Amino acid sequence: MESITHRLLTKGFGRPSGLLGCLGGRLMAHGNAATERHAVALAAPAEQDVVLVIGPDPGVGLEAAAQRSASVIGIDPQTSCAPWPAAAAHP
Fold it and tell me: Source organism's superkingdom (predicted)?
């Protein structure tokens, strides 16, 4: 039997869904923002490159890639937080 703590953590972070998933996504975006920006800097996309970001929700890395490249594509199966703008995740 699953504990309530495990279920809440799964909904917030493991397999995000609903309000807890959106809140978990915002927490992860805040905590991972510097890492995502650093990963884009290491990849060093040029303006003519097409960048594919898989699982970009909430869009911190996607936004960082868009600042360096003319074409950025983001694919994310998680859509429950789609209405929340990426800018809301930035400190």
Answer: Bacteria
Range of the domain at 50: 4-89
Run of H or E residues at 29: helix 18-43
Question: In the structure encoding, which two tokens stand for residue 76, read together?
Answer: 């994310």
Q: Which residues contact 32 (CB under 8 A, 6 or more apart)?
A: 60
Q: What percent of the chain has pLDDT over 90?
A: 22
Q: How many domains does the chain have?
A: 1
The one-letter amino acid code at 80 reads: S
- Residues 44 and 22: their CA atoms lie apart, in Å, by 30
3-33: pLDDT as tens digits: 888 777 676 666 666 777 777 777 777 778 8
